[in-house]
Each structure stands twice: as C-alpha cells, then as structure tokens.
Amino acid sequence: MPRLGIPGVPGVILRKYIRSRSWCQDLGIPRPEIQTMSGYIAKSKTDTWSTPKSLYEDLNDEFNFDEYDPCPLNDDPDKDGLSEEWAAVTFCNPPYSQLKSTKKKLGWVDKAHQECKKGKTIVLLIPSRTDTQWFHEIILENGYEVRFLKGRLKFGDSKTAAPFPSMVVVMKSK
Ligand SMILES: C[S@@+](CC[C@H](N)C(=O)[O-])C[C@H]1O[C@@H](n2cnc3c(N)ncnc32)[C@H](O)[C@@H]1O
C-alpha cells in the first residue's frame, strides 16, 4: 500500500481533511479511491505508538544509540526508513502494520535483520506477536535477544496502557 501524502501538507491536517465530508468532491477523486484511503487511515492509527520516554532513556543508557531514527513521528511522506542505510547503533519503534514482509514490500523486522547482518546493533520495540512468521523465522532462528516487557506500555502521552504486550528485540551480529 503506497503511503498517502501531499508535499507540504502535514499528515495530521491531511487526515483531518480526508475524514471530513466534502473531501471527495473537493479533491475530485473517484469513489473507489476513498475506500482505499480510508483503509490506509484506519491502519495508520496503529502506526503511531510513540516510544515512552523512560523506556527509550533506559535503553539509550545501555546501548548509546546514534542520533538517527528510521521512522520518526513526523509523517514526512518523503522519508522512507526502509530504503535508507541505518546507523551503527539504531533504535527503531516501527509502524506496527508493516512489520511483516510481503512479496511487494520489505517489512521492518526483515529490514532490521538486514541492517544487523551488516554488523550493526539494532534495537526494536515491537508488539509481542509470538505466533507470527517473522518472530519465528527471523527473531528466534537468528538467536536474537528478546526481552518481553512486563505489563503494557503507555505510549506517548497516553494515560492508558496499550491493548497489546510489547517486547524489545536486540539484534547484534555474532
Ligand atoms: C510507532 S511510530 C514511532 C515513532 C518514533 N520513531 C518513536 O519511536 O516514537 C512509527 C512511525 O513511522 C512512520 N512511518 C511509517 N512508514 C514509514 C516509512 N516507510 N519510513 C519512515 N517512517 C515511516 C509513521 O508515520 C510513524 O510516525
């Protein structure tokens, strides 16, 4: 699914506009496009769980991350962390709807694994989905360290806990 974006228009404004009633008429976009876009937007809500500050600070004390985020929380449509070279010690809390690779698109867990194979240290904060193919075939088969987090995280400024468990995966070349 391509990312939706208009250069110069912040993602938050674009999403509000698309949710409004008149957007189809204003933009002159045919009806089938609306269904594709609304599907994307519903998914993108799951993609913006920003890292709790204290968790990041604890991990940063341990790993000393480079000043680089492959997927920052700024909705920049021109940024594609999946096609960039990552830093030597990278922390990554990726969009959760795109963890798995498909025939058409590389997933974030695979991308992290590829970067690790270049000799880098990659620390992932991801949902604890232990039944998935990527968990078994990438994380377990390569013997990466998995830290299951006790309880549920409160992401960003949220006062309530997430509806899913999380884990930290440490990918280091052996
Ligand atoms: C779970 S949030 C994490 C944000 C931030 N890195 C943090 O740790 O708080 C994932 C972010 O990745 C962004 N994103 C989605 N696809 C992306 C891509 N291909 N390249 C870069 N960023 C992307 C989303 O807009 C979202 O803000």
Defining key terms:
174 residues; binds S-adenosylmethionine; 6 helices; alpha+beta; four-stranded mixed sheet; 4 strands; 32% helix
In words, what does this structure look like?
The protein is α+β, with helices and mostly antiparallel strands and 174 residues long. 32% of the residues lie in helices and 12% in strands. It has a four-stranded mixed β-sheet with strand order 1-2-4-3, with helices on both faces. It is globular, with a radius of gyration of 17 Å. The protein starts with 10 loop residues before the first helix and ends with a strand. About 8% of the residues have low confidence. The structure holds S-adenosylmethionine.
Strand content range: 5-15%
Biggest sheet statistics: 4 strands, mixed
Write the H/E string, N to C.
HHHHEHEHEE
Helix content: 25-40%
Total helical segments: 6
What coarse outline follows from CA principal-axis ratios? globular
Q: Spatial order of the strands in the main sheet?
A: 1-2-4-3
Secondary-structure class: alpha+beta
Contiguous runs where pLDDT drops below 50 for at least 5 residues: 30-43
Task: Tell me which ligands are bound.
Answer: S-adenosylmethionine
Number of strands: 4
